[in-house]
Amino acid sequence: MKLLVVLEHRFYQDPEGGVYCERVVDYNFIKRYLNVFEEVVVCGRFKTMDSPINKRLRVDGDNVSFVKLADFKGPKEMVLKYFSSNRILKKAIRECDAVLLRAPSPISFLSFSAVKKEKKPFAVEMVANPRTAMQDNSDDNIFTRIINRLIKVVWINHAKNVCMNANGVSYVTQYALQKEYPSYARIYGESKEYFEDVYSTINLKENDYYQGKYLNPHNATFTICHTGYMDGKTKGHITVIDTLNILLKAGYDVNVKFIGSGSLMEEFKDYAKRLGIIENVEFLGSLYGYNEVQKELVTSDMFLFPTMSEGLPRSLIEAMANKLPCVSSPVDGIPELLDEKYLAPYNSPQLLAQKVEYILNNPSIREKAALENFNKAKEYSESVLTPRRNRFYSKLNDLALITKIK
């Protein structure tokens, strides 16, 4: 059976035909679908590169092919590319036995009507919350804010519709996303035609968990780590810098290192310079592969993640798997990972600084939190999540087989 997987990611093709991705998706990620389906067709936005590609995740491999959409960014470009994208998507959907949408995303939005029209069995992996993802920006003018609010309503309604119409819906959260975007199976009951499951996107093998003794702290200077894309402000980079500024003014010997890159990196650097604390901030850029990220996590003393929106953050679970005390914001699935005493509003550097101080000043609390986080992260190991994914994909595969026979 052939599965079409519609992803929100951008892909890059080199002159020799190799396909790469900057974030999350590599061939091992795609292989989770190949555990059940014989062939996987990956659909996403593509850029063709004129030179070899270095330091990106390689996606192509056996039994994987690609449907290439023209690259676009933002609602305006999506509208301009709508008809050409729609033609490509319709053809791809027709040629596959089942469809899986990673939602919410612009391409899942484009695909939804075509999937319904073709009457193909389809499932959704619900990985984020559009309500919290689209926050008002105080820097925008009133017209832009009105447009963004209208787009937000459209995205929320799309997420609700796609979950209610899909044959199967899997959620990265245990409760949070299910409450706002219920599936047909949740409302009307499970059957062979409608089903639901829970599993995270993360893929942690047993040797990915830090087995060393928790060091308390690693260095004389207390090091805070943060991981997140810098294409927007939703991951809380500015808040982390403000929190650091408060801690430094209070006399603490502390610094921050950021893992990740994006179009706003220079803006974040300039902000730290204006505050006069750039010497205490390290921008590491993109690190490709979990091993590279892990090297930085295990030499940090805690993880600070005041995000505005998440499904269930992989970066937070990775920090927990490496025995780091963590402070984050109480949005979406994060309260399912951390106790409320380690949560503070994403837009309150003062409260976040108090949480960090509590951890920083109490070595026994640091060690206890680190071990609690490590044990919680064990719930998201490959050995736990793979059977759930296989169960979900098998239900979609079986439904596609029945539909094909009919």
CATH homologous superfamily assignment of the largest domain: Glycogen Phosphorylase B
Number of helices: 15
What is the C-level CATH assignment of the largest domain?
Alpha Beta
Q: What characterizes the major β-sheet?
A: 9 strands, mixed
Task: List the secondary-structure elements in sequence, H or E.
Answer: EEHEEEHHEHEHHEHHEEHEHEHEHEHHH
Residue share in helices?
Answer: 40-55%
Overall, the morphology is globular
What proportion strand?
15-25%
CATH architecture level-2 label of the largest domain: 3-Layer(aba) Sandwich
C-alpha end-to-end distance: 15 Å
Mean pLDDT: 93
Low-confidence stretches: none
Query: How large is the radius of gyration?
Result: 22 Å
Overall number of strands: 14
The total number of structural domains is 2
Category from helices, strands and their pairing: alpha/beta
Q: Give the CATH topology of the largest domain.
A: Rossmann fold
